[in-house]
Every structure is written in C-alpha cells, then in structure tokens.
Amino acid sequence: APLKSSxxxxxxxxxxxxxxxxxxxxxxxxxxxxxxxxxxxxxPSYFSxxxxxxxxxxxxxxxxxxxxxxxxxxxxxxxxxxxQADGFNPLVIKGESFLLDNSVDLTKLLxxxxxxxxxxxxxxxxxxxxTPGDLVFFIEENKIDxxxxxxxxxxLILTTASKSQEAEHAEGFWSDHWTYNLDLIExxxxxxxxxxxxxxFDKKVFTFYDNLELVRPxxxxxxxYNGKPRQLHSLATDATKKELLRxxxxxxxxxxTLHGSGEIHYTSLMAxxxxxxxxxxxxxxxxxxxxxxxxxxxxxxxxxxxxPALFGSSSCETFELKRLLKMIKLxxxxxxxxxxxxxxxxxxxxxxxxxxLPEETFSYWDKSNNVKEEYRHNTRLGFxxxxxxxxxxDLILFLDEALKxxxxxxxxxxxxxxxxxxxxxxxxxxxxxxxxEHYVKPHKFTQKTVPLFLEGQVHGLRLSTGxxxxxxxxxxxxxxxxxxxxxxMYKVTASLRSMPxxxxxxxxxxxxxxxxxxxxxxxxxxxxxxxxxxxxxEEFYIEFKNVLIPFQNPQKYGRSILENSxxxxxxxxxxxxxxxxxxxxxxxxxxxxxxxxxxxxxAGINPFTLDNNGQLNLEFxxxxxxxxxxxxxxYSFNFLSLIQVTYHNPKRKNTxxxxxxxxxxxxxxxxxxxxxxxxxxxxxxxxxxxxxRQIKQIDIYLD
Length: 703
Fold this sequence. Notes:
Elements: E1 3-5, E2 52-53, H1 54-60, H2 64-67, H3 74-80, E3 92-99, H4 106-110, H5 116-125, H6 132-141, H7 150-158, E4 162-168, H8 180-191, H9 196-202, E5 213-215, H10 218-221, E6 222-225, E7 228-231, E8 235-237, H11 239-246, H12 269-281, E9 291-292, E10 313-314, H13 315-333, E11 339-343, H14 344-356, H15 361-378, E12 387-391, H16 392-413, E13 414-415, E14 420-421, E15 424-435, E16 439-449, H17 454-462, H18 467-479, E17 483-484, E18 489-490, E19 519-520, H19 521-533, H20 537-547, H21 554-557, E20 565-568, E21 582-585, H22 588-603, E22 608-610, E23 616-619, E24 634-639, E25 643-648, E26 663-670, E27 673-677, E28 681-682, H23 686-691, E29 697-702
Parallel strand pairs: 25-29
Antiparallel strand pairs: 1-27, 2-3, 3-4, 5-8, 6-7, 9-10, 10-15, 11-12, 13-14, 15-16, 17-18, 19-20, 20-21, 22-23, 23-28, 24-25, 26-27, 26-29
C-alpha cells in the first residue's frame, strides 16, 4: 500500500518468540466474581488458582489471545490435551502444577541468585511437582534469600519446568464440550494466520487425557426400567485403569503407549482432530440426525438432564461435527502434507467407518457403534504405540463422505414448514430383544422432536452457506415461538408443555422462568453474535437495543443495567409485573459472547490476513452504526488491550451496508513519528509491529 512518513521510521520485521510461561490465576469458579452459589476451591497461597468447569473456562478464554497476544496457542493446547481418546473430557479443571527435570543444574540455572545451602534445599523441593504458590511458601518458610523479585525468580524456574494439567472427572460426559475447542483454534489462527501449518501439523505436543471413567457399551447400559427401555448408568470406573494410574509417579492422567505401560503418547493436532471426528461420526443417532447423549449428560442446555436416559440426541453437535469436518478438510487442502501419522487404533477406526458411511441410517448406527465400542475397548488402557501413515487423498475422500452423511441428517432436522431447525430428539426403542432379563438389544427406533430451542438456530446460522440462507433462518426464528413479541427478545425454548417431565429439570419450572421458556441471556447473546458473524449486520442492529442489557429499562430489569443476569423473565410467565426482570447475577457466559461481539464490531471478523506472498496484512473492517460515533465523529477503542484506535467519521455514517463510510487513510504512530497509509490495508512489517503491540496509537479516517 502507498505510504508516506514525516521522518525515517522503522519497525522490527520479526516478532520475538516469548520465553514466558502462561499461568492463569483465578478468583472464583468459572471466573464469575459475583456467582456465590457455586461450590469452588481457592488455594490459600500466592499466585492462587481455583477450580472451574471445562466448558465454562474454555468458552471464557475464547478471545483471551485477542487481549494478550502473548498467550498464543496456549489455550488450544491446554484444552485439546484434556480431550480423551473416546472424544470426551473430564469436567473439573483444577489448575496447573510444574515439575523440574532431574537433569536441570540449579547451581548453573540460578547462578549467583542463591547461596549454596539454599540451592541444596531447593534441590530437595524440586524432586516433586509444585505450584508457584508452593514454591514461594517454601522460600519464605526456609528463609531463603533471593536476589531479585519473586516474579523474576519464578520466570527462571517455570520456563525451565514442564507443566502438568490437573483435572478430575467429577460427573458424566457432556456431548458438547469438545466443540469449544474449534472456537479456540479459529480465534488463534485469526490472529496468527501464518501459524496454520505449525499448529495443525508440526507441533507434536498434543496428548490424550487418561480417565478412570469409561463409557459402557450399549449392551451394558440399555436396560428395562419400570418396563420401559432406558439408557442408564452409562459410565463405569475401570479397576485395572485405576491401579495403573495409581502407580504412575508423574502425569498419571496422560495416555501411554504399550496399552498403558509405555511412554506418553504425543501426536499432532491434526491426528487428534481425526480421532475426535471418528468418535463423533460414530455417535449419530439411529436416524442420522443428532449426536447421541451416550454418557449420562446432555449438552450446553444441561437442564435437559433426563434426555440421555431417553436415548436423546442433539443436532447442535451435528452442526459442530460438520464444522469440525470442514475445518480438517480445509487444513488438508491448504497444506503440502501428503500423509498424516496417527495411532494405528485411530487409523483403523477411520478405515472401518469409511466402509460404513454409505449404509442406511439404522444399519450405520448399529455397525458404527460396534466399531466405536471395539476401538474404545482396545484403547481403554492406552494405545499400542504403533503408528500408521494415511495418505491425505484417502482422508479427504473420507471427509467428503462424512460431510454427505452429516448434511443429510441436518436436512432432516430442518422443519420445512417453519424454516427452522429442531435441536433435540427423543429416540424411543420400538422393537427389541430382551437379554439377561435386564438388558435390551434394539431393532427399531421411533423419533420424537422436542419443541424448538434457540440453540439450534445459533448453530444453523454458524454453518449457513451464505447470506440468503442465514437471513431466511433469522426471519423464520423471529416468526417462531422463540421470539417474545412483548419484550422483543429471544426465548431459550418454545413451550415445553407437550413434553414429559422425564426430559429433565427444565420441564418442572413455570413457563417463562429459569430454563423453561425464559430469556436465557447467554444463548441470546450467542444468537446475535452469529447474526454479526454471518454478515447480517443490519439485522444485528435491529436487535441491538432490544437485547443488550445496557439498553434495558432499569426499573423493568430490576437491577443495575451494568450487570448481566442468568435469565430474564419472559412474557410466558404468569405474573406480568416480572416480565423483563433479570434474575441470578453472573458474568461468564454472556460476557464471553459480548467480548466477541465487541471485537467484531470494532475491528471486523478477521482483520489479520496473509497476502499472496504469505506476508501479514492488517485491515480494520468495523461494523459500527453511525449513532455510536460521538458528535465530533470520533469513536475510540483499545485494540489488543494496549493500542488506542480512533475512527474519524465526521459524517457519522454506518460502516456497513449501503452508502457505508469507507477507510481512505490510516496513520500509525511509531516512536512519536507518524506513518501514513493511503489505503485500508496496513502491510508488513507494520502489521507485525501492531500485533506485537510495539505501536500504541492508530488513527483511521473514513469518508
């Protein structure tokens, strides 16, 4: 792009690789400062960590890299490494500990920072794993004199030590937890597009979490209960695995080779994503529509906690499976890699599924589950340690056939009459054989749709094929029961009156209250985020002031409009005086969605891209309504936390739609020297300098 400068200026062309260790501190479970009702544990120490649940922490960290780019791929690795070989993950995240390798010479590492006798004391301390708080306490209790600050000392130690994730199973396996990793991958690559090949193929740092709890095969969990077939007690503790893990001195929950007795199994992200895809592809319901709730728990809408017993399934995760398959395929097609190395068990799993994909839905369900159960049995203690290389051409053919299977199922989830998607399904066993007086072997199912949920429309928008399809779904959703005409907001469910109480706790709440037909703020924010992401910007602003809490009437909302709520009472509730009132203060879910909305409004969906020569470019693509600009036409925000960006829009025009204001000039400040670009694109090396936050001020002029 043409540029001019008032003085000679230069920026570093390469971003320095950070040697820092990423370490998260917590003050409450899930990060909710005011959410007092959750049981949580806070370590009484320096640099304290707290516990949190997998889904909540994962989604809350989605945009962390956009507020601190130094985090890089830390969260992708952290959460992907908690995915098990069966595609599930433990619930409770307990923080991280560190272990110093025996080969580290402390005297050499710490140099003159410590006396010899203090170094000897620390040598004993470092023989076991520790947290930063443990280390500081040990230093204080033993009156060890350190030259410098604790932070400097910890940086030396932690960047040398290996990090260990602490987690525990706690409860069953939710069917949606894996999907939030796709967000982490996308958000990281949106900021670091040149790291695409490294992340997917080169980094062999990915492991599998080794859990004591295993998913039972169908022959052990399909039972008669009060004379009716049900899916109960889907998980079991493996006694052999428990003893195996007990004997491990370090990292007991990292899956090993030699069926548990060998070394830790390391692999690439690509191989791990294929493992995930195979597990989910073999978990489609007997009609090929939803992903089965096979492990005691439902998905995000966890008040459908009775649905797993009813052989429940969800199209929401089928949409996400499509997203996963498309992500893998795009990565393969845009790389020069010719083969993918993976554990032989995963490779054989995929090869068997390839042959089954053309089968009709019930036959595919039965046979793919047989393959999955055999794979899970063979890997319950670990992988063999043998690997195979599968040609990418074969894998792309597999992905194409898998996508056809998934898309056919999603077509059946679509209500043609209303133009909207069903989210959940009850799959009843209609014909079966009785085995051992208790267990049933099904031969035929019937499927019942659960009333409409906003969640399915969120995923439908996310996977829409274009603006036309997205707009049709938006219009259909607004015409449906999900839209509250009085409040002009979106309900989390339609009426559940037709459903038995057996579907879960949501059914017992009064309509309009809690998880039954209320305005569930987190999902509503997810919905308007997808409007923005799909390019329905005008529609997004139609909903903007009706939906966002800061625009609510405080008297009607019943609390500060600077504070989010779990839910707002909808007009389905009997007491009209409570309509629009917010209950149960919380931050995490809706705030995570709003941060994403805020980023897209201010900077666009993917401002960092690579040009035809593989060089980094930065192009701001704001989605701002004209009324958001001050009277002088200015609008400022902090980009990547530290860079003040100011838009100059004297006519206060929208930056989207017809007659949108467009960027004609950008001025960046480098060491108080302005550099001007007569274009909307900031090229290399300035784009790198901005991403590494060497530049503190950007002025963008629109006309």
